[in-house]
Amino acid sequence: MPVVLAVALLAAAPVAAVPRKLRQAVGDCAPCRDFDRFVNRQWRQTHPIPAGYESWDRFDELDRQNEQRLRQLLQGAAAHRGQPGSNRQKLGDYYASCLATQQIEAAGLTPIVPELARIAAIHTRAELQEVITRLHSYGIDVLFSLTADDEQSTGAVGALLAPANVILDDPTTDRRRILAGYASELLRLAGAPAATAAADARTVLAIEAQLAGVSGGRARQMTPAQLTRSAPRFDWRRYFQVRGLGRLAAFRVEQPALLPAIDRLLKTVPVERWRVYLRWRLLDALALYLGSRFRSAGERFSDEFEQRTAPQPRQQRCIDEIDAYLGDALGEAFVDAYFDRRALAQIKTIAANLKAATDEAIARQSWLSKTTRQRAHDRLVSLQIQVGRPDRWRDYSSLIIDRRDYSLNVLRAWQLVTQSGLERIGRLPDRNEWDLSLAEVNSSYDPITNTIALPAGLLQPPIFDPLADAATNYGALGSIIGHEITHAVSPLDQLDNPYEHWWPAADGQRFTRRAHCLRQQLTAAGVDGRRALAETVADFEGMRMAHAALQRTGNRQEQRFYVSYARLWAASEPPGSSTSYAPARWRVNLPLANFPGFARTFRCREGAAMARPPAQRCWIW
């Protein structure tokens, strides 16, 4: 069987149909010349970049499949509602309410009239603060934001008080014009006469400009008493009590200059102008969730002001909202439908073998101090790898979802998400919390909790197949796990992460010198070696450790392993794209060309493009 045909069959045929030996071919497709092209050329030819995408790869393919599956799950929940109060009922009713455009249009502002009435009833500074606090409960930040502090490296999660997401953070004349027009349009759509809306827009612009001008001062911890001294016109004690944070003794303030600016605004801006500003702030937050005229205004503003890409189709936007606001409910449905629990033991075995292989490799490195080797060992022992789903699901029993009230569903969901974030404050970081969607085709490493997450959306063919042999699964999923494990122990990742600096300086410098070899190879290939180095090291060591872990199983199907690794990175991408990852071709070829096991398997002559001479090979551990 010709070699090219054998590789083509890999994508379509069962593993048993792939021949034991892939014979080398002559010409450009030879594995020793360009293994990425040898394996992935046919895929690339048949998978052009779709319209609206900057590139296209196997992860995008699987992601599109998962999006279709989520859509089917939500359509089913909307058509066949579960018991009242069940997650199925909430998923189906939210989805139905989001798609009910005629119902949304007919409702107009009616669902948020009570919120607008609260704003209109403000007459004192105390009432102003109560409404600001209420808006904060929805995640609509006014004057400042209060969130869990994810920059803390040890102990309990802290609280971060920071400037609000101010629109005029770059107060150029053109931005002022755009904001003034947008604010005037929203206020006019909400019922203000044109002249009044224009005047009110100037009020919005003036307050935004003052907030945008706040900067200065290094972040520092402050007690509630210090906050009060810096901004006495805001009742901090009352605010923290209402938000359930009365017990906290200190807050990290990102820009202390914000506090006197808040006090100055509360002193100088009349209450009637605050009513205008808060009315606009609410309308702005909800513009994309109201009728078509509000939505169009919001989309135009985003396009013009933020240079956002074209808005998503409504159906996809509804799915994304549910994934963001009821992520565990949707994730649980996805896991129940599409994650093969029988594969759990297989994946955990792969992960355990990867941890052991990495531990053994680091222990052998005489250039590392005994201290570093012990710290790396301890880190690997404590490293947790979550497979498929969190250990426990989030409770949505307090969330009310009604298919007749889309904008209210949005507000209630925002309130739950915001409150859940605040509840993290004062607690130890939770390994059960995932940053990834469970249907996402991705993996992540969290340095705070020393946890790797492998969501169910990733654990599907061609990345993992419970019916495939070990070489195929270790080449793909094993390399991904190895990539994330490398991030857990590489000093390169400490440069951008403040959580834990456990590498001694001397060993970190030795590591960097060894990694410099890969940086030089990237640069020679026309890639930004500085920018892509950390991820390339993770690719290189991830593949090597996956190969070492495969040896622990007794599987010797080397060619399958390398082909599976190469297939993982198949991609159609424009030339010259620059990210923190090397282009797909080099994610395949660069690690393999440095690995003598690849050259032995395919009998590559020394000096071939895919068989670097020993003196030119890069090696970390």
Question: Percent of residues in helical segments?
Answer: 55-70%
Helix vs. strand class = mainly alpha
Q: Shape, please?
A: globular
Give the amount of beta strand, in percent: 5-15%
Which regions have little confidence, pLDDT < 50, spanning 5+ residues? 1-29
Contiguous helical run count: 25
What order do the strands of the largest sheet run in, or round the barrel if closed? 2-3-5-4
The main sheet comes to: 4 strands, mixed
Radius of gyration: 28 Å
Mean pLDDT across every amino acid position: 90
The separation of the N and C termini measures 38 Å
Tally of extended strands? 9
Give structural notes.
The protein is mostly helical and 621 residues long. 55% of the residues lie in helices and 6% in strands. It has 25 helices and 9 strands. It has a 4-stranded mixed sheet with strand order 2-3-5-4. A 3-stranded mixed sheet has the order 6-8-7. It has a two-stranded antiparallel sheet with strand order 1-9. Strand 7 (444-446) and strand 8 (451-455) form a beta hairpin. Helix 8 packs across helix 9 and helix 17 packs across helix 22. The longest helix has 23 residues, at 529-551. The chain is globular.
List descriptors:
about 625 residues, mainly alpha, four-stranded mixed sheet, three-stranded mixed sheet, 25 helices, about 55% helix
Question: Short description, anyone?
Answer:
The protein is mostly helical.
Task: Please write out the topology.
Elements: H1 3-12, H2 35-46, E1 56-57, H3 58-79, H4 87-99, H5 101-107, H6 113-120, H7 125-137, E2 144-149, E3 158-163, H8 173-189, H9 194-212, E4 220-222, H10 224-230, H11 236-242, E5 251-253, H12 258-268, H13 271-286, H14 292-305, H15 314-325, H16 327-338, H17 344-363, H18 370-382, E6 384-388, H19 406-423, E7 444-446, E8 451-455, H20 470-489, H21 505-524, H22 529-551, H23 558-568, E9 571-572, H24 584-593, H25 596-602
Parallel strand pairs: 3-5, 6-8
Antiparallel strand pairs: 1-9, 2-3, 4-5, 7-8
Helix pairs in contact: 3-4, 4-15, 6-13, 7-13, 8-9, 8-14, 9-13, 15-16, 17-18, 17-20, 17-22, 20-22, 20-23, 21-22, 22-24
